[in-house]
Amino acid sequence: MKSITYCEKPVVGYKLILGYLGVLLMIIGTIVLLPLLILFFYPQDLSEATYFILPGVLSIIIGYLLFFLIRGKEKGRLERNQDAIIVVVCWILAIVITATPFMLSGKYNFTQAVFEMTSAWSTTGLTVVDVENTSHLFLMHRSTVLFFGGVGLVLIMLSVFSDSHGMQLYNAEGHSDRLLPNLIKSARIILSIYLCYIIGGVILYVIFGMPLFDAVLHSIGALSTGGFSNRAQSIAYYDSFPIELITIILMILGNINFLAHLFLLRGKFRNFFHYCEIKCQTIVIAVATPIIAFILIYALQWNVSDGFRASLFQVVSALTTTGFQTVPSFHALPSAILTVLIVVQLIGGGIGSTAGGIKQYRIWVLVKSAYWKIRSQYLSNKVVYTKKIYRIDKLDKVDNQEIIDCGIYVFVYLCLFFLGSFLLSCYGFSLQDCMFEFSSALSTVGLSAGIMTYDSPSFVLWIGTIGMFVGRLEIFIVFMAMIKVKDQVKKVFKGERR
């Protein structure tokens, strides 16, 4: 008699989705509890510990129970757009759970708390918190979330749990950089690079006179391109050129694709400096900096050194979507400066980096495609030209579909930008201030003209919250998740359950 072997079916569908969410909930719970470690250094904040223990422990327990759905079992492949659902739901849960300590403190309502944590997870830096009168525990909580928001929740999960199908989630979260054939090793290398840069930044900040706690927050804020500070004046508080220079370097490092970092650290400078995004950011900084400096010098009567110093810092801060500032108030700056900064903010940082915005790669592809189009119109039709650009690892062809995809993304992005700016203007703010503020939110920059504050109407804060959320997840992931959920709801109503 032949023996029968029973093969357990792989976990698929919503059990698989809930299992992945369980893993991510455990990570989120741990993130909420991590700031409690600073109580050893600041025991005066001990009374606020309960605000973190409750949501942190509860998240870990629920996550562990959901994890049993996939623990020790073979996991099937996610269906089309299910990866988008996991990422979007996970980010929503992460925002709400990490916002809970703010709500439990009694100082912030739901809207304000969600706005603050969306800003942290999306590495934006817009804030409703009075940083000068907030405890070390809550300031560290914001920066801890900022750290993990920069590298991404999925990457953290992959660095801890080996998963053969994790690439779907990794790409859905907005990553395209894979340093090694093994995704797990890639995730750990990225985290190692990230941590080393932050530690280096902390050491340099302390050497040049910044207190240790400030140094930790600002190093995380600069490299995560998030811009959270514990000073109301941001970097301007220190009035130190070395500190500004360290911040500029960290912001640029955070703006660069992590795969490019690997080439740089391995001494492959040719690959690094030929990369199209490195060229793009160099050109933008070289063009925008003297324009703003000229306006500061001749319109506001700044001296030459101060004008170029402030201009360089603010252009880098806007382009890398960090949001640190060294000028007193953007609301008081000439319209020409705000216009330049709006354009720079919309361009944004590099693909596969911690920065937001349209992304320099897409801008470079569209500019090159315009050049190719003009060249084809004026040169002989008999000559065949190959469309190529320098990616980080090689000179590669660009097909028409990629150009179309970039064009569609930019079009949708600008539509959202104008829609958000219009909605803010309905509250009586000037259109330019609204465009500056919403471009800052959508591109996850964090520079503010004073529209989104603690006292702002709830609808204004929700406009900013949605802008930051959609901008961080690169728009289409959110749309795909919404479409997938809508399709599943239709199936339920039609009785077509799986």
Question: What labels describe this entry?
Answer:
about 500 residues; single chain; about 65% helix; two-stranded antiparallel sheet; mainly alpha; 20 helices; disordered N terminus
Write the layout of secondary structure elements.
Elements lengths: L12 H21 L16 H18 L14 H23 L5 H12 L14 H16 L1 H8 L5 H7 L10 H25 L4 H12 L17 H15 L2 H8 L3 H6 L1 H24 L4 H16 L15 H13 L12 H19 L9 E3 L4 E3 L2 H26 L5 H12 L15 H15 L3 H18 L5
Antiparallel strand pairs: 1-2
Helix pairs in contact: 1-2, 1-3, 1-6, 2-3, 3-4, 3-20, 4-5, 4-19, 5-9, 6-8, 8-9, 8-10, 9-10, 10-14, 13-14, 13-15, 13-16, 14-15, 15-18, 16-17, 17-18, 17-19, 18-19
Brief account:
It is built from 20 helices and two strands.
Describe the structure.
- 63% of the residues lie in helices and 1% in strands.
- It has helices spanning 13-33, 50-67, 82-104, 110-121, 136-151, 153-160, 166-172, 183-207, 212-223, 241-255, 258-265, 269-274, 276-299, 304-319, 335-347, 360-378, 400-425, 431-442, 458-472, 476-493, and strands at 388-390, 395-397.
- The chain has a two-stranded antiparallel ribbon with strand order 1-2.
- Helix 14 packs parallel to helix 15.
- Mean pLDDT is 85; it is low at 1-7.
Number of strands: 2
Give the N-terminus to C-terminus distance in angstroms: 36 Å
Strand order of the largest sheet: 1-2
Largest sheet: 2 strands, antiparallel
Radius of gyration (Å): 23 Å
Number of alpha- plus pi-helical segments: 20
